[in-house]
Amino acid sequence: MKKVLTTVIILIVVIGGIGWILSNNKKKNEEKTAIVAQGSGAVTVRTSSVTKQPLDLDFSVNGNFLPSQDLTFSAENSGRITRILVDVGSKVNKGQIIAYLDSELLNVTSSNAQATYDNAKKDLERFESSFKTGGVTQQQLDAQRLNVERALATLKESNRKLSDANIKAPINGIVNKKLIEVGTYVSPGTQLFEIVDVSKLKLSTTVTESQVAALKIGDNVKITTNVYPDKSFNGKVSFIAPKADNSLNFPIEIELSNNQNNDIRAGMYGTAVFEFAKQAPVVIIPRTAFVGSVSSNKVFIANGDHAKERQVVAGRILGDQVEILSGLQEGEIVIVSGQINLVDGTQISAIK
């Protein structure tokens, strides 16, 4: 009984202590609120003057050079490689023979197909002659014509396979990898060579939303490299992504021609330098002046010691600055911090 009574007393004391602490905190908060209420009640904000500045749209971005064509091609026939005419680093032209496949069986097949086709044509001539005298029916004549067509198709196929025994380069370029050796047995789909064309390249890079707005397909671009600081190349914008990537940047590609020595190699780093004509001065305000986001088109200006809401029309976003097309005049004071506490007409205390 004593233990129960002691426990109850302790609980009463604890509860009473908590109540006293809460009451005391409430009293202190009310005192602080009263002190604030006795003040001016003005909201402290930071401001900035609306200025007119000439735009500098020039910028540069880094990227990687990609080959205009990079092709790993495969065998179309089965057989053993009997001869290879190129090595890694060799320059090749489209249609150039670079290796030979054993063609003995293919030659036999082609010869048989040719003989079958020749016999079918002779038989057709006899059928046509007999048809004129009533020796064969129209159905028999048509069947023989079909035999000739089939024999011709077989001949073309065998000749194509025989021709493919001479392995030819499918594009102009440089042999980057040789994936076979003399004696290798290949079948359709076996990879043979990797050929890379660096006579033309693409500089792949990304730009921000404000930068992409200034670009269009066909724009001329100056390209430099750290490897050859004394050389520059001319390129043209060939691709602008319609959609941003996961980092909210926009992939673009710039095409350029390599020099005679093909000094630029795929995989090197390059810098694209975008230069634009001098722009006329425009009204500029800090991006932080907007309530919420730039798309809200809502800012507050300082009208004496009061805040006044203003609707504006935003233009280009230029880093941490935003172009204003209408709604503000040069020299007005815009609030750039503290807007969350403002409504139209709120008294303010401005600091710069």
Automatic annotation (TrEMBL):
<dbReference type="InterPro" id="IPR058627">
    <property type="entry name" value="MdtA-like_C"/>
</dbReference>
<feature type="coiled-coil region">
    <location>
        <begin position="110"/>
        <end position="168"/>
    </location>
</feature>
<feature type="domain" description="CusB-like beta-barrel">
    <location>
        <begin position="205"/>
        <end position="274"/>
    </location>
</feature>
<keyword id="KW-0175">Coiled coil</keyword>
<dbReference type="InterPro" id="IPR058792">
    <property type="entry name" value="Beta-barrel_RND_2"/>
</dbReference>
<dbReference type="InterPro" id="IPR006143">
    <property type="entry name" value="RND_pump_MFP"/>
</dbReference>
<feature type="domain" description="CzcB-like barrel-sandwich hybrid">
    <location>
        <begin position="76"/>
        <end position="197"/>
    </location>
</feature>
<dbReference type="Pfam" id="PF25954">
    <property type="entry name" value="Beta-barrel_RND_2"/>
</dbReference>
<protein>
    <submittedName>
        <fullName>Efflux RND transporter periplasmic adaptor subunit</fullName>
    </submittedName>
</protein>
<dbReference type="Pfam" id="PF25973">
    <property type="entry name" value="BSH_CzcB"/>
</dbReference>
<feature type="domain" description="Multidrug resistance protein MdtA-like C-terminal permuted SH3">
    <location>
        <begin position="282"/>
        <end position="338"/>
    </location>
</feature>
<dbReference type="Pfam" id="PF25967">
    <property type="entry name" value="RND-MFP_C"/>
</dbReference>
<comment type="similarity">
    <text>Belongs to the membrane fusion protein (MFP) (TC 8.A.1) family.</text>
</comment>
<dbReference type="InterPro" id="IPR058647">
    <property type="entry name" value="BSH_CzcB-like"/>
</dbReference>
